[in-house]
């Protein structure tokens, strides 16, 4: 029958080869069988052929060809293809990025009851991508997907309840939705459920259960959970304190480019915790996170340059890194920057600017900076202090959203 040109009969062997059902798995043969009915307009085959090109299965990866095949199926009303075509437009894969077109295709799929399309459409409303931001509409679409058992929809709906976006804040309901998604193996939900138990939000505080949920997500390779699990081992939070295990988990997350884990791993090397002390490696990991814009890492990298640890001492570079972090509101960097100005390290000595940064750090909660202000005032005239306070006010005002 397959050789007689029946599209469905030709499609079925493709699925069997793709999945290794009753025959050895052979993605090239799967593509051959999908192509025959796809060329005859069979939407299932067109979608599957698009998937093979999108993922480089049995053919060289080719996102433009993937888009062509998804479009052929989508134009026939095939919801899976409509959703995937939306993804291609949303991410600029095989087509120029176009969030409005992404929304159009997601909506076509969503209106057919496609849970993935509903969830993606909710995300577009939640983030104001291709449509005006609208948390209430985001919640509506997440709920439609969640009510079908879609784990992403359940997880995102939980997040909306946790943050009171589009619905009243309700941490218990957030936990309920996280739990539904977590039971399906959704790593975001598992990690968020761990956070809920770690902080006693919507559930009684239980660090043992927090660690269990973090581990479930971490074992699936979820970087945020790996970092959190490492933090629990570092501090002995209802797990035995184990700095070597902390390093292992930080390293797993850091290798995925997760900035908070990268700079914590740097800190482990800088202080010889769980690994031999190595300032060069500390700087490497700090830099990876700092280059991603992580303020904590930028501040620590500034410290390394200021003190010549793992790098040649360079106070000008130290000031540059402190400034990057200070501009993000990092109190430790603001205090350090104040000290550099006060002592003329890497910049001309300027007590007024030094006081300005130190006062900003104090306002951001640095107790050490607050105490330092008294020392500054003993060295400055009343007019200089007033000028520094004015500069601090102007700086704060300039950082406010317009």
Give the SSE map.
Elements: H1 7-19, H2 27-39, H3 43-55, H4 63-74, H5 79-91, H6 99-111, H7 115-127, H8 135-147, H9 151-163, H10 171-183, H11 187-199, H12 207-218, H13 223-235, H14 243-255, H15 259-271, H16 279-290, H17 295-307, H18 315-326, H19 331-343, H20 351-363, H21 367-379, H22 382-398
Helix pairs in contact: 1-2, 2-3, 3-4, 4-5, 5-6, 6-7, 7-8, 8-9, 9-10, 10-11, 11-12, 12-13, 13-14, 14-15, 15-16, 16-17, 17-18, 18-19, 19-20, 20-21, 20-22
Keyphrases for this structure?
Serine Threonine Protein Phosphatase 5, Tetratricopeptide repeat, mainly alpha, 402 residues, elongated, single chain, 71% helix
CATH architecture identity of the largest domain:
Alpha Horseshoe
DSSP, total strands: 0
The H/E string reads: HHHHHHHHHHHHHHHHHHHHHH
What's the story with the biggest beta sheet? Answer: none
User: Structural class given helices, strands, pairing?
Assistant: mainly alpha
What is Rg?
A: 27 Å
Q: CATH homologous superfamily of the largest domain, by name?
A: Tetratricopeptide repeat domain
Number of helix segments?
Answer: 22
Overall 3D geometry?
elongated
CATH topology of the largest domain: Serine Threonine Protein Phosphatase 5, Tetratricopeptide repeat
Percentage beta strand: under 5%
State the end-to-end CA separation: 67 Å
Unreliable segments (pLDDT under 50, ≥5 consecutive)? none
- Average pLDDT across residues? 95
